[in-house]
Write a structure and sequence with these properties.
Blueprint lengths: L17 H17 L25 E4 L10 E4 H9 L4 H11 L20 H4 L16 H4 L7
Helix pairs in contact: 2-3
Length: 152
């Protein structure tokens, strides 16, 4: 018999239960709607950004490491977000993901791989906190990036 994967509500994340984590989503959505919080458009792990497709492949998750601070975002693209949450059951996948895709100063390198930390309060796992995610450098407009002048 194969071991079944736990459902999201069966595990904690940085000490917060599934219900506590879900309770933050309406708060964030209200902040986004009111303009008090800007929806992220770039992944702070790998730098991916596809603003033309923010509702599909280009969607950037407003990931949280501390659910008591709903405005302290760690933006992550779908690929990075999936690997991030799979890191406890497949640490090798997370390490390979960081080596292949992460920006050199990514906050993802500071995350623990210890599965026990899922149930530990954030402050015990990260007594000094996590690095504040840096926004990836803005891409130059296409005309600036071209090696030749634009024709008139």
């Amino acid at each position: 018999m194969t071991e079944r994967r736990p459902h999201p509500w069966e595990y904690h994340y940085n000490g917060w239960s599934w219900a506590e984590r879900c309770a933050v989503t309406p708060i964030q959505n209200a902040l986004f709607r009111s303009g008090q919080l800007v929806r992220p458009t770039a992944c702070t792990i790998c730098g991916f950004s596809d603003p033309a497709r923010l509702d599909g492949r280009g969607y950037i998750f407003a990931h949280l490491e501390r659910y008591d601070r709903p405005t302290e975002l760690y933006p992550a693209c779908k690929r990075c977000h999936a690997a991030l949450h799979a890191r406890f059951r497949d640490p090798g996948r997370w390490q390979l993901h960081l080596c292949r895709f992460a920006l050199p100063a990514s906050w993802g390198f500071a995350l623990t791989l210890d599965p026990a930390s899922q149930w530990e309060p954030f402050e015990l796992t990260y007594p000094l906190g996590l690095p504040v995610p840096m926004q990836p450098p803005a891409l130059k407009p296409l005309q600036e990036a071209l090696p030749f002048p634009e024709r008139g």
